[in-house]
Amino acid sequence: MKEKQAMIEGILFSMGTSVSRKQMKAALEVDDELLDYLIDQLKREYERSDRGIRLLELNDAYQLCTKPEYYEALIRIVNHPKKPKLTDVMLETLSIIAYKQPVTKQEIEAIRGVKCDHPVNKLLEYNLICEAGRLDAVGRPILFKTTEEFLRYFGVSSVKELPVIQEDMINGFKEEAQEEVKYALEEEEAEKMEEK
Question: Which UniProt keywords apply (predicted)?
Answer without folding.
Answer: Cell cycle, Cell division, Chromosome partition, Cytoplasm
